[in-house]
Every structure is written in structure tokens, then in C-alpha cells.
Automatic annotation (TrEMBL):
It comes from Cicer arietinum. PROSITE patterns: NAC. Transmembrane segments: none annotated. Residues 9-148 form the NAC domain. SUPFAM superfamilies: NAC domain. This is NAC transcription factor 25-like. GO terms for biological process: regulation of DNA-templated transcription; system development.
Length: 191
């Protein structure tokens, strides 16, 4: 799903590369101005877009959105900013070479509330690059952005029968289904 480039992907196409593939096949090629196959990941400015606006603009595959941005570009906009969380992780090849680094960031609203939007930011490891280094190596990063679902965040929560009867609100969808049950009960009763 690409917006401005209108790239038509074949039916059933699912983009699910490993960290190593993202660095070797896409980020190295972009940083060295080599053609990468296929040219499907767009360059976007994170200072102009909120993470929930990535649908149709970034390469989207399932809940994941892929884009290139410049290292020096601002990671903030009028609604919030990308805040680094956790440690930087090395991306290691099968031959045990360090290919790059991955940073984790969370989109934080201006008032300081963290959202469920996570970004994995891929950087080339300049010290062990398999290609001759140029200044452009540090110019680009590849970003994978996704929304962490509530079920992923609260997998350890257990519900008992007491929780169900404790006055919790019913969702609008449950209300629709319950009203359908009421309608069925009314039609099944003899006049």
C-alpha cells in the first residue's frame, strides 16, 4: 500500500523481511545510491506525519509500516515526538558480523503520554560496513513503525467471574449483538 508512488504489488504480497534483510538489501542500497530491488520503501519526513497517518504513505504490510528518513531530521511534530527507549541492539549477520544497529522509540504526545506506536530505527554500522564508506552512509535510516495492540500490552491480565459481574461497561458491538438477541426473542414468541 503506497500512496504517492502508486506502486502496484502483486496479490498476496506480504513484506516481512528480517532485520538482516532490511539492513543489507534496503538500507545499504539506499545509503550508497545503488538501485535496490524493488524500490518500494518511500522516503518520508517524520516531522510532517503522525504514526497513525502512515497508512497509504509508507510501505504497509499488515500492521507494520516501512519508510526511509534522514538521520538528522527532526523526530517531532505538532502532536508529539519519538522518544528513544531501551538499549540499542546490534544486528548481526549469520557470519557473526555486525551489520547495523537498531534503536527502539515510542511516540509520545506533547503532554508526555506515551502511545502504543513503536518505531524500530535501523542504522548502518559504519565500523564494519562491507562496502567502502562514504559520508552518505550516515544520512539514511530505515524505520519500521507499528502499533502495539492492547492485547500484547496486557497479556498477563487474568479475568475471573467476579470481574465480569463487577459493572464493567459493555462495548457498542456487544450492545448490537444483545439487541439482536432481544429482537429474535420477540419474533419467536407466539402472539
Amino acid at each position: 500500500m503506497l500512496g504517492s508512488e502508486n506502486m502496484k504489488l502483486p496479490p498476496g504480497f506480504y513484506f516481512s523481511p528480517t532485520d538482516e534483510e532490511l539492513v543489507l538489501h534496503f538500507l545499504y542500497s539506499k545509503a550508497s545510491n545503488l538501485p535496490y530491488h524493488p524500490n518500494i520503501i518511500p522516503h518520508l519526513h517524520l516531522s510532517h506525519i503522525d504514526p497513525w497517518e502512515l497508512y497509504g504513505k509508507a510501505l504497509s504490510s499488515g500492521n507494520e509500516h516501512y519508510l526511509f528518513t534522514e538521520v538528522k531530521e527532526s523526530r517531532s511534530n505538532e502532536n508529539g515526538y519519538w522518544k528513544e527507549i531501551g538499549a540499542t541492539k546490534a544486528i548481526v549477520s549469520a557470519a557473526n558480523n555486525i551489520l547495523g544497529m537498531k534503536k527502539y522509540l515510542v511516540f509520545t504526545l506533547r503532554e508526555g503520554t506515551q502511545t502504543n506506536w513503536i518505531m524500530e530505527e535501523y542504522h548502518i554500522s559504519s565500523s564494519t560496513s562491507p562496502i567502502n564508506l562514504e559520508e552518505s552512509w550516515s544520512k539514511w535510516v530505515l524505520c519500521k513503525v507499528y502499533e502495539k495492540k492492547m492485547s500484547q500490552m496486557s497479556q498477563q491480565v487474568c479475568y475471573s467471574d467476579e470481574d465480569v459481574d463487577s459493572g464493567t461497561e459493555v462495548s457498542w458491538l456487544d450492545e448490537v449483538f444483545m439487541s439482536l438477541d432481544d429482537d429474535l426473542d420477540e419474533t419467536s414468541q407466539p402472539n
